[in-house]
Amino acid sequence: MSAPIYPFVPYYLDTYPEEETIQRAKAFYAFMNTRRTVRDFSDKPVPREVIEQLLKTASTAPSGAHKQPWTFCVVSNPALKKQIREAAEKEEYDSYHGRMTPEWLEDLAPLGTDWEKPFLEVAPWLIVVFKKAYDFKPDGSKRNNYYVSESVGIAAGFLISAIHHAGLVTLTHTPSPMNFLTKLLNRPANERPFLLLPVGYPADAVQVPDLQRKPLEEVTAWYD
Ligand code: IYR
C-alpha cells in the first residue's frame, strides 16, 4: 500500500509591514533571551492541562516526511519519578566518577552540575522524549522514518520554548546511557530515549550561572 497523497489547501498567514516585522523579531528575541536552564524546582503543582497544551505545541514541529517520529512520555507518579531518579543517578555517578573525560568535567565545572538529580523527584512533571527510529505498519512490519534526530530535536526546541512562554522552567537532562528509561517506561523496540525534561516552577530565590551568550558576530557568517 502506498502512502496517501495529501490534498493541497490554501494557507493564510498574518504578515506585517517592515517596521512591525522588525519590532516583532526584536520582541521575540527579548522574550527568548530571558529563558534560562534551571536546575532547582519548586514542587508546586502544574495542571495536567498545561502540559497537554505544551505537548501539542511541541508536536507542531516540522519532521522528515511529516512522520512526527516522537513520543512524549509524561510522568507525574511519585514512585515512578523516584525509580527514574535512582536509575539516572546510578548512571550519572559512574559518568562523573570515571566515564567523563577530565576535559569534559572541566567544561562542566562552571555550571556546578553533579551526579545528584533531585529535580527528577521535585519537579511535578517529567517529560521523557523518545525518538521513533521507525514505525510499525498495521501488519507489524517496519516503515522507516527520516531525519529522526533533527525532527525530534526541533520538537524538543518547540517544547522548551512553550515551557518558557507558560512561565515554567526546564532543563535538558541527558542521563547517559539512557536505556533505563526504555525499561522503566516500557517503551516498544522502535523507540529510543532522546531527552528528559523536568517541568515546573522554579524554586524560591533560584539562582543560575551568570553566563553570557555569544554575540551575533561570533555565531554568524554572512554572504551578501
Ligand atoms: N548528563 C550529565 C552531564 C552533563 C553533560 C553536559 I554536555 C551538560 O551540559 C550538563 C550535564 C548531567 O546531566 O549532569
Automatic annotation (TrEMBL):
Keywords: Flavoprotein, FMN, Oxidoreductase. Pfam families: Nitroreductase (PF00881). Coiled coil: none annotated. Gene3D superfamilies: NADH Oxidase (3.40.109.10). Signal peptide: none annotated. Residues 34-201 form the Nitroreductase domain. The keyword Flavoprotein applies. This is Nitroreductase. CDD domains: iodotyrosine_dehalogenase. One of its GO terms (molecular function) is oxidoreductase activity. InterPro entries: Nitroreductase (IPR029479), Nitroreductase-like (IPR000415), Nitroreductase/BluB (IPR050627). PANTHER family: IODOTYROSINE DEIODINASE 1, NADPH NITROREDUCTASE.
